[in-house]
Amino acid sequence: MLTLTLPCPAKLNLFLRITGRRDDGYHELQTVFQLLDYGDTLTIEYRDDGKITLASDLVGVNNEDNLVIRAARKLQTLTQNPNLGASLNLEKRLPMGGGIGGGSSDAASTLVGLNHLWQLGLSLDTLAKIGLELGADIPVFVHGKTSWAEGIGEKLAPIQTENCWYVVLKPDCHVSTAEIFCHEQLTRHDSPIKIATFLEGGTGNSCEPLVRKLYPDIDKALIWLEQFSPARLTGTGACVFASFKDQVTAQTVCEQRPREFSGFVARGVNTSPLHQALGLLTELS
Ligand SMILES: C[C@@](CO)(OP(=O)(O)O)[C@H](O)COP(=O)(O)OP(=O)(O)OC[C@H]1O[C@@H](n2ccc(N)nc2=O)[C@H](O)[C@@H]1O
Ligand SMILES: Nc1ncnc2c1ncn2[C@@H]1O[C@H](COP(=O)(O)OP(=O)(O)O)[C@@H](O)[C@H]1O
């Protein structure tokens, strides 16, 4: 097959605790990455002239800085085969800087897709390690399973979460992950918890108090969504979310949102739509 069209699903952080800080400044976390059946779409066309090109509707990011191109070039360098190339086309649906992992998921689909198209035969573990050098959130999308995560998000253990629907709201602001992690008021010493505590529902997002204070629009979105179901920040924001038992209820809530928030409804999935599209779980895991 010479062309692949692949999903790049979003994630939510169902909770987020910051348990420490490494010598390199990166923070150690505990989180659950919940994959969603909603995301960007990446098309990859094989080329045999060694060129890598990208067409993208992402505004504000140069192609050379786009994680898709950066991931493709990194993999190409490792292959040491000057003929392997690709024309990539990225259709963005996920808001940038939303804490829902759009750029990371695009990069993961690039790595997994090119591995397939270029017939490199690299394992998901190897692809995840390559991805981790580009961003802490890439490994979970490479492995493609809703997971309990530790370390900086690279130590992953798949878990099964309840089958539910999420309303995700994006206030009209952009949160820089680096800004939040550098902030002096960030809580950095949460005690580690066990999975049972998460399953009992006794957890939150440690970035949320600071982000709410710095971004009043996010605070407003959380207050609005709380009317319907417990609401939370994902990652370092800017998106907030709440879960619902069925699609109709979630859609009804989403449609009532104040127009200052964009939003979408998505189903939580335990296996990534990317892996379902490629039938990868049996082939590579
Ligand atoms: C904290 C999370 C939770 O999902 O936030 P979101 O980005 O999704 O909101 C992520 O792990 C983020 O992952 P990602 O967005 O890939 O972060 P990176 O590009 O690797 O890092 C951006 C910057 O954030 C800081 N950073 C990031 C992750 C981490 N565990 N500790 C950090 O201190 C570092 O200053 C780094 O330079
Ligand atoms: N394909 C891409 N999609 C989104 N952002 C990208 C992409 N490539 C590079 N970026 C950069 O990565 C940053 C984080 O983007 P994103 O993954 O959407 O946010 P988050 O990490 O908050 O979920 C953006 O601010 C942007 O500068």
TrEMBL record:
Gene3D superfamilies: 3.30.230.10, GHMP kinase, C-terminal domain. Pathway: Isoprenoid biosynthesis; isopentenyl diphosphate biosynthesis via DXP pathway; isopentenyl diphosphate from 1-deoxy-D-xylulose 5-phosphate: step 3/6. One of its GO terms (molecular function) is ATP binding. ATP binds at residues 95-105. Residues 204-261 form the GHMP kinase C-terminal domain. The active site is at 11, 137. Keywords: ATP-binding, Isoprene biosynthesis, Kinase, Nucleotide-binding, Transferase. Residues 66-145 form the GHMP kinase N-terminal domain. Its EC number is 2.7.1.148. GO terms for biological process: isopentenyl diphosphate biosynthetic process, methylerythritol 4-phosphate pathway; terpenoid biosynthetic process. It catalyses: 4-CDP-2-C-methyl-D-erythritol + ATP = 4-CDP-2-C-methyl-D-erythritol 2-phosphate + ADP + H(+). Belongs to the GHMP kinase family. IspE subfamily. Catalyzes the phosphorylation of the position 2 hydroxy group of 4-diphosphocytidyl-2C-methyl-D-erythritol. This is 4-diphosphocytidyl-2-C-methyl-D-erythritol kinase.
